[in-house]
Each structure stands twice: as structure tokens, then as C-alpha cells.
Write a structure and sequence with these properties.
Layout (H helix, E strand, L loop, with lengths): L9 E2 H11 L5 H13 L3 E5 L5 E5 L9 E5 L5 E4 L5 H11 L9 E4 L2 H11 L1
Parallel strand pairs: 4-6
Antiparallel strand pairs: 1-3, 2-3, 4-5
Helix pairs in contact: 1-2
């Protein structure tokens, strides 16, 4: 289910509604438990974009770190950055603070190019 909607950043309720279409007997509690287990196993990552809703994202196979996100504060779109942008920062933190980093998450909040374009179009 998550694979079919990989770019949607689904909440547990979203997953529940999609699974229920194929398996009507499934319960919401089962979906929550399963997502928590998959998160513990590092198959999915539990993320929050500041809207109070936990969402789940498939962890890329072989990825050393969680990928980064761009969250549009106007339309709510979430885009992904696959490159690891924090390698230099990690090296500085590990060296200067003697802190062994296991993972990191980076989320940028701003206005996506689509909303910027829409705004430019309405101003003309």
C-alpha cells in the first residue's frame, strides 16, 4: 500500500482507508500497530510536518539517512530531496561535539515553485 502511494506521505488514517477498500475487516488499531512496527524495523519513517499529523514514508533501500523534505506553507505540497545535504555538517558535529550521529532529518518550510508561479500569474 505504501509502495503504491510512495510520494503521498500517508497518515495512519489514510493507510487505513486504502487498506479497508481491499480488506474491509481490518481495524484502525491494527494499522497503527503495523505502522509502528514497520517504523521500529526502519522500513518506514514516521514524520511530522508541523501539522500535528504523523505521516509515514518508505525508507529508501540502502539509504544511510532519511531523505529531506520541502513543505509548501501555501498548498501543503511535500517534495523530496534524495541527496544527503548534511554530510559536512555531520562531520563537524561529530568532530567538534564528539556526538555519534545515527540519522538526521531536514525539512524546509516555504513556498513551492508552483505556488510562486501561480502568485506571479495573478499579479500580472
Amino acid at each position: 500500500m505504501l509502495l503504491e502511494h510512495e510520494e503521498d506521505h500517508l497518515s495512519a488514517e489514510d493507510v487505513y482507508l486504502l487498506v479497508k477498500e481491499k480488506s474491509p475487516e481490518i481495524g484502525l488499531a491494527t494499522v497503527y500497530r503495523t505502522l509502528e512496527l514497520l517504523s521500529e524495523l526502519k522500513i518506514v519513517d514516521k514524520i511530522n510536518f508541523g501539522d500535528g499529523v504523523s505521516r509515514y514514508d518508505l525508507r529508501q533501500e540502502g539509504a544511510a539517512h532519511f531523505h529531506h523534505h520541502l513543505v509548501c506553507i501555501e498548498c501543503g505540497a511535500v517534495d523530496e530531496i534524495q541527496e544527503d545535504l548534511l554530510e559536512d555538517v555531520e562531520n563537524i558535529v561529530e568532530r567538534d561535539w564528539k556526538f555519534k550521529i545515527k540519522d538526521h532529518r531536514l525539512t524546509f518550510h516555504g513556498i513551492c515553485s508552483r505556488c510562486q508561479k501561480d502568485s506571479d500569474d495573478t499579479e500580472e
